[in-house]
Every structure is written in C-alpha cells, then in structure tokens.
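Researcher: Structure prediction, please.
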Amino acid sequence: MDQTHRIFLVDDDTKHLLLLKDFLERHSPYRLDVKLFSSGENCLDKLDEQPEIVVLDYHLDGIRPGASNGLDILKELKRRKPATEVIMMSSQDQLQVGLNTLEFGATDYVIKGETALLRAELVVRRILERKAAERFRQAQTLQLRWLYAALVVFGLVIIGFAVFAI
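Model: Predicted structure follows.
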C-alpha cells in the first residue's frame, strides 16, 4: 500500500470533479495522486504520466461545444493505453449507453446520482485491490521460478559429486 496510484478525473463539471477528488482522497485506503481535467483532449495530452485509472464523464461538451464526448475519448485512450482502467460516469441511466462504454473497454459504468461518489470509490478500490493481487501473484511466481532454478542447480551439483565420487 506504499505505492502511489495516479488517477485522472475527467469531467467538464468542475464542482463534480472537486467533489469526486475530495471523496476519493478522504475515503480510499490507498495513497492517490489525483489529476483533474475539464476535457478529454487535455487528459489524452497527459497520458504519458501513466494513470492507472481514468474516471471519465460521458458528456464532455458543457464548457466547450464540439468537444469530444466521453465515448470518443474512451476509444482513443484504450487505443493508446490499453492497460489503463477506465470508469465511465454519466447521468444517463440508459442500459445501452452503459453497455456501449463496456463494449469499448470501460471497466465499469457509474450513473451520477446520490451514490455515485461512493460507487466510484468502491470501483477504484476494487481495481487497485485486483492490481495489488496481480502484483503479489507475479512476485510469488518469480520467487517460485528462482527456487526451482536453485533446486535444479543444487540437483546438478549433487549429481556431479556422485559421478566424480564413483
């Protein structure tokens, strides 16, 4: 848990961005480095900062008409950084909208409303827990490989001694 996890929040609603940032930082058991973006294009410009998770609003044209929508940003983000987890957020409660975002690579879809902040934090937590478990499994696998290699070398040394002893 000592690792800092970079999260990008993308929404053209500044109030929602600040509320979500504050909620995540106060309630997450993980150390977070949260960056805020008012447009998807700005987020895409900063992908070299390697966010683990992007929380992305579906409608992003409230400030700048003609801005790319969240689905277009999702597609481009997944094209550039396929391993980045994306949580889509929207006030749209239509099933097809949620299914479209999942089809294009979103990890989850959160409907904005009374429980949206809590739900977003739980999804972020679940993603970070899964990633921690994956890192642990990889470390265990590496340790087992080293142990196996050491046993093979030890076995060869024993066989070598047995051959020379004969």
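Model: The two ends are 55 Å apart (CA to CA).
Researcher: Thanks, that helps.
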